[in-house]
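Protein KINESIN LIGHT CHAIN-RELATED 1-like
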Amino acid sequence: MTVLTVKTPHKMQSFGIFLREPPQNETTVTGDHRNTSPAMKKTIKKTIITDETSLENPDLGPFLLKMARDSIACGSENLDKALDYAIRASKSFERVSGSGVDLATCLHVVAAIYSSLGRLDEAIEELERSILMLDVENGSGVGMVKFCGYMQLGDTYSMTGMLDRSIFCYESGLKIQIDVLGKSDPRVAETCRYLAEAHVQAMQFDEAEHFCKKTLEIHREHCSPASLAEAADRRLMALICEAKGDYEPALEHLVLASMSMIANGQDNEIAAIDVSIGDIYLSLCRFDEAVFSYQKALTVFKSTKGENHSSVALVYIRLADLYYKTGKLRESTSYCENALRIYSKPVPGTTAGEIASGLTEISAIYEALNEPEEALKLLQKAVKLLEGIPGQYRTVAGIEAQMGVMFYMVGRHVDAWKSFDSSVTKLRAGGERKSAFFGFVLNQMGLACVQLYKIEEAATHFEEAREILERECGTYHLDTLGVYSNLAATYDALGRVEDAIRILEYILKMREEKLGTANPDVDDEKKRLFELLKEAGRVRNRKGKSLENLIDSNSLKMKKEGRRRWGAFSFRT
């Protein structure tokens, strides 16, 4: 069972004080107080500290909003003051106009400050309020302000890890933008790309490909050949194709993107593309070409960014993975150590996310090298780096799930259960309870429960995992059938022999239809079913060993061969 995530965690837009710029050719909606006379400014300043009736002054709202923006510009230490100004500005706008564009825009500022203060629930509340008060039929200006509200709300949901709600908001914003600007406007292309990136985050690669194609089509229409915009689109399309296993199309997109970058003299970007080309060659087992691409990128990064830059560490990790796969374990270990040396003393500007991503990938290599304890230490460091950072809930959940698998492998079943439980809690809170990834984690948590003799809890997790994987992967998928096998074992252990027999008969039928009667897996299922039927005939003398014998042993194994760097972890059922 393989769980996919983006190879290096995709960098969503940083959401500090994020305010979308008013659309081009639109008049600003918040008023401009630059032409206010000194006397008027003095009068307004006095009203700031007077009673609530002063909020009815039509000049007060724009002035307070300007003060809020000025406080934001002065740095994060002034955010509380900026929030106070922005909230009072919103009250003034509400008193003067009741609702409308000015108030909605002010609420966007309030929400942005709440987000920077980590008060995301309050930010969401203000943005939803700003969206509800606007009617797009009142003009294009209103429509574009509502579009900005939806996009900012999507960003905020993304920070909470609720990717499904985030994508819904982006799609709602896109519909408004297309209605106002038309479907081929360059600004629509940027929103389509935003949606494609969001779908990649959610591992919805078909949807991501759809929006990325739209972006590419619009940029071809409006940009010159070999433009930087088209190159960026092709790099994203290559990432999507690689995630789907379409390596040849991915390679084609990367080569075209590299040509565009060469035409524009973007040496560092060319090197980054060379790394991606190396990844494709590695997936295709074209190892010599992969080494050549990685070494080209390494030379450029060392000369332009320095030998201790995180980009250099990333290439070291790729080379370590390559040498592991080609059986050169000493070289693989050496490159891992070089990368760890860089991460131990990061250069200024290196983000916690970059370091955590690198540690996670090195951990996977150490695990493959049969050094689980060292791999666990790296994963624990990665979790500490990411804890408390908005928008990293899903990444942390994936790492914790990987830790759970590794704890399980070394026999630390209590720690495994704790890691899985923490991962499941985060995924539920982030709206991931319907994804295949969530189903995989539930299956593994069920296996940990089996080892702790929490059989009823294990059955609950297997039942939920079965429902999810049937929907997301299909009835015949081997991952789904593996969960069915585990569920049959737990039912047998709970004394629900008839339910267990019914499931095993179903599994046998599915495997025969999918694999044929001569397949070894089909023979295994027949033997398991025969054993259970035989045992069911001796109810009073049941030996209680069927759980150990019937549990799908392949579920307990990590997938060593053919490991892909996409996910925090992978399974085979």
